[in-house]
Design goal:
This protein is 30% helix and 28% strand. The protein is built from 14 helices and 29 strands. A hairpin with a 2-residue loop joins β12 and β13. α8 crosses α9.
Length: 746
């Protein structure tokens, strides 16, 4: 039976329909937010899967009909998810995943299908609300509800779910999600906003989230199903006791080894001792063998996690011996790659990233085809994480969700300090190649590519540094607070602390403030106090990293690399664009052919940008375009070349295809019967423009000769023999009266 629930949220109509569409799913809702419509469904398998992880899948399906578009692919149908769909799926997954019980092994799939998009009403957060509600009204055990909002700030005023126009003027782009009690996820970009102001924006968003959670609870109370019984995975207590007794004390010593690889080897040796024992035992079936070995692996991981957490919380000892607010050793270098336009390497402990910057013409912009309204992207930041960076063998190829997410985080962090397109009309691509990793490689990529941008001569507004913060709590099932739940915040988390910790909080920015934030947690949320402490600790670390970067490269270089395309930008009248391009592109292609295949970008407003590695070639192409678009003006003086002589005067090339007629009476102060008597083709002649009539240019040479005393000006008599002349090299030689006949001389 169809039911409809309505409310007003952020000044807009929010409506949830259920009981009519997708009724065979375990839970489904049809959510309308303004004209944005998302169908969210949740399904759960009846039996748990064999494995040591929770098999949750979130799909964010973008339908091109949602914005009235036909897909641009060859098959004209939607294909694999694009970057935006992948990031949106991650956005929904991150706050939902921690709210399933530990040991949940039944496969769960959430599908958010975007069916209509009103750009002023976010489909991503509508999808998150729908996903939470589909789970909550179903019989799937889930500790929700959860909700998310976007927060913007225009002229100092915070706004929930800003419109497209408001987003254009906002200095904060914040996505925040959480439960009624605490914050679960943060994703933000900001124009160098101070920490306290960003924290205010996060908490402002949380107040709105509480309203959405309350709305969901009212729906759940009316139509929510009783939750099914799910068998949660728990290890055999006898096997747990056996393994702890045999390697427990030795594991503590192994975890305290400083070097990552040595520590891993020591821990792996202990694991192998146990694994070999259980692997060689007799089992009733292959499944029993596989399940036991999976259990053994899980127990070993749990023992490592428990010891890492105990050392940090109780003894304030980290796996590598650092203090809780101490950064690993830092190193920064530039110019590793001689032919790259900009290159740098940033090392933090055993995490190392090589960053590169490539500059291209604006025509190299990335073409965007999604539901956001964005059509092209001038700045790209790509992140690669090859398996050798952690000493493993693995798949290499197209980027996965993690690589896309980390690349976007770096793009957001650096985008706020880039010069505008008008200031620096280049397409910019940064690539972060992780060559060694022990945690926080995403932030190392931001540092590396900040340096590579400066090395490439990109005039950044500030130096961006990034750091990853961690959190370890006494009770991971609760949101930490100072009164009742002890916690420790860690600066510059490494792999073990990230893997076994309760929070990964990435923060990047300049000396002025934050440019990017990302927070993922595994517990039931964090409070303002925890976030404030983490931001303050991160600020101190970012300052230390920034000093290392500035010591390596204090400021952006004044010139781009010799291998990068040089650039000149200028404007021509819009009515001259056709002349520059020519029929079928003939003119512009001719310029490119004559100028070593120079890149020429022509904008609709008459802006022309030339790109080439050789400045001399750029100047040559600019001169050719100037010659095409330039118009002679009265009083201008030219050193021209005579390219045609008739008895009544000489045609002088002023520039490009523009010729001026110097009448025989203007060649000298004295009387000349025939122009051929004083000039010939190829002569250089200094002339001044004296008239512009119907596209014809008249010039005079005699002003540059001594004027005889007592000179009396004779009127210029009309003549009809020189035919038509358009001043642009267009000469009609169809003259009446033969070669010289019919000339009227004076």
């Amino acid at each position: 039976m169809k039911k409809v629930f309505e409310t007003e949220f952020a000044g807009r109509h929010l409506q949830v329909e259920t009981g009519e569409i997708a009724k065979q799913a375990d839970g489904s809702v049809f959510v309308r937010f303004g004209d944005t419509v998302v169908l969210a469904t949740a399904c759960c398998a009846d039996e748990p899967k064999d494995g040591d992880f929770f098999p949750l899948t979130v799909n964010y399906e973008e339908k091109q009909y949602a914005v009235g578009k036909i897909p641009g692919s060859f098959l004209r149908r939607e294909g694999r998810p694009g970057e935006h769909a992948t990031l949106s799926a991650r956005l929904i997954d991150r706050p939902i995943r921690p709210l399933f019980a530990d040991g949940f092994r039944n496969e769960v799939q959430i599908v958010a299908t975007v069916m209509s998009v009103d750009q002023d009403n976010t489909p991503e957060m509508t999808g998150m609300l729908g996903a939470s509600l589909a789970l909550c009204i179903s019989d799937i055990p889930f500790d929700g509800p959860v909700a998310g909002v976007y927060v913007g700030r225009v002229d100092g005023k915070l706004i929930i779910n800003p419109s497209v126009e408001e987003r254009e003027h906002s200095d904060i782009e914040l996505a925040v999600a959480g439960t009624e009690e605490a914050i679960m996820m943060v994703e933000a970009g900001a124009a160098e906003v101070p920490e306290e102001e960003m924290l205010d924006a996060i908490m402002f968003g949380h107040e709105a989230i509480k309203q959405l959670c309350a709305f969901q609870k009212s729906i759940i109370a009316e139509i929510g199903k009783p939750k099914r019984e799910i068998s949660l995975y728990k290890p055999n207590p006898e096997i747990v006791a056996d393994i702890k007794a045999r390697i427990g004390e030795r594991l503590v010593k192994a975890i305290s080894i400083f070097d990552k690889l040595e520590r891993q080897d020591a821990v792996d040796a202990l694991k192998k001792e146990i694994n070999d024992d259980y692997d060689n035992r007799e089992y009733d079936s292959e499944r029993d063998h596989n399940m036991t070995m999976m259990m053994v692996h899980g127990i070993e991981e749990s023992m490592v996690a428990d010891e890492v957490r105990r050392l940090i919380i109780e003894e304030k000892i980290r796996p590598d011996g650092r203090k809780v607010d101490e950064i690993r050793p830092l190193d920064a270098q530039v110019d590793l790659l001689p032919r790259a336009h900009g290159s740098a390497m940033f090392t933090r402990g055993q995490t190392q990233v090589i960053g590169t910057t490539t500059l291209g013409p604006l025509s190299d912009k990335q073409i965007i085809d999604n539901l956001t309204g964005e059509t092209a992207r001038r700045f790209m930041h790509h992140y690669n994480f090859p398996p050798f960076s952690v000493g493993e063998i693995g798949r290499m190829g197209s980027p996965g969700r993690r690589e896309i997410g980390h690349g976007k985080l770096g793009e957001r962090a650096l985008s706020y300090v880039l010069p505008s397109e008008e200031e620096f009309p280049y397409t910019i691509r940064c690539v972060a190649d992780v060559v060694e990793s022990n945690g926080s490689s995403s932030q190392a990529s931001i540092c590396a590519n900040c340096m590579s941008l400066m090395a490439a001569g990109v005039p950044l507004k500030g130096v961006v540094s990034g750091i990853a913060m961690g959190l370890i709590t006494n009770d991971p099932t609760r949101s930490p607070d100072k009164e009742s739940n002890h916690y420790t915040i860690l600066t510059d988390i490494q792999g073990l602390e990230d893997h076994f910790g309760d929070m990964d909080f990435k923060c990047a920015g300049t000396a002025k403030g934050i440019t990017a934030l990302q927070m993922d947690i595994k517990i039931h949320g964090v409070t303002r106090e925890v976030l404030s402490e983490a931001l303050a600790q991160a600020n101190k670390a970012r300052t230390e990293i920034r000093e290392v970067i500035e010591k390596c490269i204090p400021e952006p270089r004044k010139e781009v690399s010799q291998w990068a395309p040089k650039m000149v930008t200028f404007k021509i009248p819009t009515d001259k664009i056709r002349d520059v391009i020519g029929k079928g592109g003939e003119t512009i292609h001719g310029i490119q052919a004559a100028c070593d295949n120079i890149t020429i970008d022509v904008e609709e407003d008459g802006t022309i940008t030339l790109y080439h590695s050789d400045k001399a070639i750029i100047e040559r192409a600019k001169q050719m375009i100037d010659d095409i678009t330039k118009e002679a003006k009265i009083g201008e003086i030219y050193e021209g070349t005579v390219n045609r002589v008739e008895d009544y005067g000489a045609f002088v090339n002023l520039f490009g295809d523009t010729d001026g007629l110097c009448h025989v009476s203007r060649l000298d102060w004295k009387y000349i019967d025939n122009a051929n008597d004083v000039v010939k083709v190829g002569d250089k002649l200094k002339v001044v423009v004296i008239g512009l009539e119907m596209g014809k240019v008249k010039v005079s040479h005699r002003e540059f000769l001594d004027k005889p005393e007592g000179y009396v000006e004779r009127p210029e008599k009309p003549h009809n023999s020189h035919g038509s002349f358009n001043g642009k090299g267009g000469r009609d030689n169809n003259r009446r009266g033969g070669n010289r006949g019919g000339n009227n001389r004076h």
